[in-house]
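Data availability (excerpt). The following record was deposited with the supplementary files.
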Amino acid sequence: MSNNARARIAPRSLGYFLGTSTLAISAVLATPAFAQNEGAEASDNDDVIVVTGTRIERPALEAPSPITSVTSENIALSGETNIVEFLNEVPALVGSQDNDDATNLGIGTTGVNTLNLRNLGSNRTLVLVNGRRHVGGTASSTAVDINTIPVDLIERVDVLTGGASAVYGADAVTGAVNFIMKDDFEGLSVRGQGGLSPDDGDAETYFASILAGTNFADDRGNIAVSFEYSKENGINANDRFTSTEWFTLLDNPDFDPNGPDVRQRVFLADSTIAFASPEGAVAIDFFDGFDLLFDFEGDGDPYDLGQPISFRNTIGGSSTRNLDFIGSLTSDIERYVGNVITHYDFSSNVRGFLEFKFAQVESASEGSPTFNDLVPILVNENPFTPQAIRDAAALAGTDTVYISHDTFELGRRGEDITRRTFRVATGLETTVFPSTFDNLNLVMSFVYGRTSEDFIATNNLVLDRFYAALDAVVDPSTGQPTCRTNLDPTALPPQIPFPGGFGFLGFFDAFNTTVTPDNFGTTPFFTPGSGSGCEALNLFGLGNASQAAIDFVNDDSLRTGKLDQLVVSATLSGDSSGVFELPAGPVGFAFGLEYRDENSEDFPPEINISGFTFGNLIRPTIGEYNVFEGYGEISVPLIKDRPFAELFAVDAAFRVSDYSTIGGTLAWNVGGVYSPVEDIRFRGTYSKAVRAPNISELFSPQNQSFFLPDDPCDVDNIPLASNPGLRAANCSAILTPLGVDPTTFQGDDILNATFPGVLGGNPDLTEEKATTWTAGFVYQPRFIDNLTFTADYFNIKIADGIIPPASQDIVDQCVDLPSINNNFCSLIDRRADGGLSFLSVVPVNVAFFETSGIDYEVNYLWDPASVGLENIGQFNLRYIGSYLERLDVVSLPGQQADEERDEAVTLLGDDAPVHTGALDLTWLYEALTVNYRWRFRDRIFRDEIDEFDAAADQGIILFEPGRSSALSTHDVQVRYSIRENADIYVGVNNMLNQRPDIGSTGTPVSPIGRFVYAGFSFELN
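Predicted structure:
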């Protein structure tokens, strides 16, 4: 912090604190704390301001909505260069997706950082820049990638919770986050920063920014140009854990529901997946008795099964460790963001403005390798077969063995994604009818944005090539291994003679297809014959596959997408002062029209569209919608400066919309503020908000997916139904025609691997409907200078919520409804042996969400000089916290609510602790600024099963409580002004090196651990 900044703080801090909202302090105090209900930028007279959540200019005290604000100084003192990781500390945004979450959240999410208000989904959070919409960060989604917003160009960030649809439109059903950018900058500002994890020597970050601005045309115009670069090096699971340090939370094999001293869920060290191995797991007589036992490792050594724990898991042995299937913990992210912001006064009452941005974000991560179960190998012809396996096969009288292999040597599957965002916002601001109205303002704006995406899926296994490469023989002309199809184009690879449960996932799926002359070698990706380029693949052992064979079976496939957004709007705002005024003042108003068009295209590579890869079959998504809207607001001051009524004002807003997809909608809100005396102010809002379905929800095709629900018809699951007799009867009606005995059916034993299905959009969706309200107060006692306490209760209920039913809900509802002639059973297929084989999932308007709680803040600015203590600086203490009362999800009508409060993973977001808080203490002394920050999140349950009773350690089982540890990290930054407007600083985040809990990669804290950084900044005026 510069000396000039410090000079601005001291003379104004005390008077300014009492003269405006308590939360406007953070706009002038260079502290790292948050400010609640600021959301305002003061004008020259600190009287009329622009408040996020309304289009009416008004004094800050009259804003009824609670708004949390953070400033550029807050961000700088945190040391964070990823803005989402900083905003995650705002209680309303704890469910947001930062780099820790974006790595393993789902296909195509690598590198995307999105904001999620109240843990109700990023698609319900509207992100604005200078009060205007911003194009989404990925194809088919309106959720904005916050990586595209330049950190050092931010003036402040306003977080408005509760339904803001009446003011800003759809997507604001849970609120809005408004990034206010610096738009009148003069001079040159430069900052650089670097950091890493000192304990592990990794997770390096680099950040550099430059901002230059100047006035022109006799100060009638201003232009500012900025460029920002940042790089975050990701870390992998093996950078933080070893197999003996990694514990997996699994069912306790010794659990006895009648024995209270044994826990239902336990942590198992060195756990493995029992069906495969990095070396290859070879079964000689697998189908002789179906004993699920392997005989050899791929190199011919005896297979060590380890200690069996469950059907799928063992401890130790030759099988693949669970830890090995975890790839990246955080992604590699590299950002380039350029901005131009300018405005020009054409006359005394006409101003033009232009905002231009280009951002390129490159990200990469890696996940698990491909895996292949019980692939048949003709050992007498395959030249790679170890002699021990040949001998065992001969002794068993078979020429075929079965190998299950987690193919690490083929490379981990990964994502390499480049996203480019272009956005331009331009328009005019002018005053109209000056002879009638004192301040009637018209703002017309045009916003266009495009995000394009190049998504490379690395090491994507091509299945028909893979089958051909595994079927290796000796070329009689050379004596070298080759593919059988190179010698005989009509030859087919051997197939699994087993009707279900194991095999490849994808086009050649053991559940429903085999390789036949009709589908093998009929694609443009592989043509059998001498010119096919097929290279024989050796999967016996680890690291024996040739690079040529690896290159032949893998493909780095390119998927492209784009999203275009066009918004045209005009807003007329002002007050009635030129015509009339009420006794308490003029009536404020704003009315406007808006047109918005969103269209998206997402094109997978042909190889994925054909379904010939290990990854999911993906089809193109093309969708578009537009909406015409009219909106209005009014603010009526009823009483002012009266006994027991310093201020009483009411607000109202509405928005009428006509969507090309769902038709008309209406959103509205009312609110008010009442201040009986100078010390206290009460405020509240009530709104009816709506959210229209987005392109993905409406237009996604039926893309391939995979599921693994518990089979409700399994005899062990029949008693778990609310009506076991009904479930048993329905299961009998389904299984008996297949020739399966429902009284002995073991569906979960058959269902040992995921099975295929489709997941797509639903063009018949309608809007979500939300009811939200807030009520709170701001307390500023006159008898304690600079002390403020704020508290606001919030409640959000969303009906007709858009959600794809969980696979478990679909299979359960099929047999738990009065008849199997229902919509859910029509979404399910079963095999001849009764096992689940296919599932269709589409989103529907059936869910109900509710969340409620209290946000509160205590802020105290102490100037020791006020009590005669000179020359010891100033101190600012602020604690911002939240209490989560409820977070409930009802996925299907009539179901009991899923209470997600207090859980580590929620349906629509991240962890949902009951208590969340951040404490900031800042000391400013001459050229020195020291900031201490404590971040806290309450303990949460690791999963929904919480039967963790006391028990003794039984050796292999590590007993731990059902809750994770609380997040409790301590950050310190020391900043020194070496001269005016030139600072150097160092800091450490997570100073005590809190690590993720046992069995977790990121709960309750980032896996990076302790992080140190250093940087500099300077300004030239």
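Summary of structural features: The mean pLDDT is 85.
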